Amino acid sequence: MVCRERLPGRPRPAAQGLSWPAHLPGLARRAGPLDVTDTHRRKNGRRHEQGLVHHRFVPRPGPQFRRGRPVSRRQGCRDLRDQGSGHIIQISSVGGLTVFPLGGGYVASKWALQGLSETLAQEVADFGIKVTLVEPGSYATEGAAGGVHADANPLYDGLRESFADFAKTLNVGDPAAAGRALLKVADSGNPPLRVFFGAQGNQIVPQVYADRLNTWADWQDLAEEAHGHTRMAPAT
């Protein structure tokens, strides 16, 4: 998560990274600087586990969700709420809108982040706080090679090989370009709730959503049947 103040006339953070604003003392004391050039912070933030969901893809899936959870609650939101403005930027993924094999833990954490962040956006809007979900595709980083891999089940060797071949065909993005784009999002006077980074989102997600809409439409009769005919008031 990147938390950015929105004070008119205040200079932007240095291009090499984003730091906690000085007027957020409680959060700054605990969290320290957010520096996108800090190798240790980048590795801790981007590593993910790979493996089959139904084969307990990692020994402990919890750490994936602890790394993926936002730190925008409590003191951070309190300080932004008190000043009456702010911009919380969550780094999600195209994997928060679709799925891919062997990445169940990763995509589950991103789907959770999507729902939590969109809810957060509704809750803090009246306080002048904006929330943006950045949804990157694949980038030229350590990526899955730096992740935690489950023991390989030979029954799925074909799946792993085909997915590895597919991954080699991806036109990965430049992390430096993503950093520059992130500063533009932070500087926007009217930032979006969601924004793709890279070309893959617009190539993949529209068809995924079209397929979902078609499936729901195909099964609409059953959905109505499942509703029943009760006239009782909805549960609260």
Could you please describe the fold and organization of this structure?
With 236 residues, the protein is an alpha/beta fold. It has one domain (2-199): NAD(P)-binding Rossmann-like Domain (Rossmann fold, 3-Layer(aba) Sandwich), CATH 3.40.50.720. Helix content is 44%, strand content 11%. The chain has nine helices and six strands. The strands form two sheets. It has a four-stranded mixed beta sheet, sandwiched between helices. Strands 2-5 form a two-stranded parallel ribbon. Strand 3 (86-91), helix 5 (104-124) and strand 4 (129-136) form a beta-alpha-beta unit. The model is unreliable at 3-39, 41-46, 52-59 and 68-72 (pLDDT under 50).
Helix and strand layout, with pairings?
Blueprint: E1 2-4, H1 25-31, H2 39-46, E2 49-50, H3 62-68, H4 75-83, E3 86-91, H5 104-124, E4 129-136, E5 148-149, H6 157-168, H7 175-187, E6 194-197, H8 200-218, H9 220-227
Parallel strand pairs: 2-5, 3-4, 4-6
Antiparallel strand pairs: 1-3
CATH overall fold name = Rossmann fold
Report the C-alpha radius of gyration, rounded: 20 Å
The overall pLDDT average reads 76
Helix content: 40-55%
CATH homology superfamily name: NAD(P)-binding Rossmann-like Domain
**Proportion of strand residues:** 5-15%
Low-confidence stretches: 3-39, 41-46, 52-59, 68-72
